[in-house]
Amino acid sequence: MSEWWTYRPSNFLLFSPRTYYRLFELYNSEIWPGQVLALLVGLAMLALLGNRGPWQGRVISVALAAAWLWVAWAYHYARYATINWAAVYFAAAFALEAFLLLVLGVGRGLDLQAKAGWNGRAGVGLVVFALVLQPLIGPLVGRSWSQVEIFAIAPDPTVVATLGVVALASGWPAWLLRPIPIAWCLLSGATAWVMRSPDAALMPLAGLFALAIARGGPVANRC
Amino acid sequence: MKVSSFSRRRLLGSLAAAGAAAALSPRTGVAQSDALVTRPIPSTGERLPAVGLGSWITFNVGYDEVARASCAEVMRNFFDAGGRLIDSSPMYGSSQAVIGYAINRLGKPAALFSADKVWTTPGSRGPAQVEASRRYWDVPRFDLLQVHNLLAWQEHLPTLLAMKASGQLRYVGITTSEGRRHREVEQIMRTQPLDFVQVTYNVIDRDVEARILPLARERGIAVIINRPFQQGALIESTARRRLPPLAGEIGCTSWAQYLLKFIISHPAVTCAIPATTSTAHVRENLAAARSPLPDEAMRRRMVAYVEQS
Q: Is the complex ipTM higher than 0.85?
């Protein structure tokens, strides 16, 4: 792309905010009551975070990988790509993250330490936020309840919940699991910003918070 | 005598336009012509209404049936008011498919002047993309194909010119937007047998007045104008202000008409392509293509009024 410096983020917005949020409305309507199942999976994952055991990391990794794979196919590829040709690449990135979760999380086994220090609690807090509070933000800033974004259904809460879980993990596999979610936080924030959504700062702030709580935490347990 | 559906639509459109003009005249004190201002395509003399319809963002609604039906209504109002040229691109998401849906829903209006683009690299992918676009539109052939933002133009232009020579296409053009690569645009305009060039021009962004618009007149190239409202920003910034008295002198009842009349009154401009999701706005936009249009002195006053605030 020549003269790339002359382009603004709004030059890349292909759709109106109405079309973008209506996509969630139609998607939610088409997969109902899948949202209930997704929420139950999320709550089960949250409960498991507090019960450290040999299968904890593997089971949670499978749940997250399934969520990423579903979002890759059902949201990005099957729906978002109808209004944004770049969404096929987002679908590929989400599928890659699902693959990484399976290889690193199930193959190696993520060592999750929910009660290890303040950042462990902050990680759990991020998961709770993604499951319970984040879906409420859209309606709170004026969007319809029918357009609600839910963990394992929509990308944003899925990404934030994953960053919360990864914040509890120790070792280098956790760092391999962060680039795609962090990149999505920036991309989602940029999309919301050019659409002038009042909650545009949410995803970049969630990404920054996830990086901040990742910095010092699990290091003490590496040996 | 058999009256085609196109003729009936044009007649109804003219009657509607006459009604609208009659309703407007008492307020503005300006006698407006019922007929839309048309401009010739220099290479053939075929005339086009000076206001067309863009599809960037507005028609990219995916498979949302409600929104698709709404877009079809916008197009119905566009044709009823006498519009012809609709512009799209493979870059615009589902816009091409939505236009195709609407064209079929409206019974394939004979007035349609289909303008699309090729936007892919390498150039060898061009013919496949053009064919995919044609299927989305569901038209036998495009009236106009343009190389979008000059992407791989060295490869695409020979392909498009060959299509034109073999009758698979009527006109060939290039596009740019927001002032990018104007020197290269000029070079192509000087060296290639173009029918159309598409550029950004509005009351604020007037770079093309210096070289590209005069060059288009000199070379006999039709000019399509994109971003007439700076992607909505001009409408937003002017919405808080009252129309100046001079707007009444040229029959403007809204800022959109003020901005469009400024553009299409430039003698080198063939057609401006505002995009909208509103049936009222599409009619308002088309109404801007009725005389009177501002003369050069009035155009300078229009610029001064917008710039001083």
A: yes
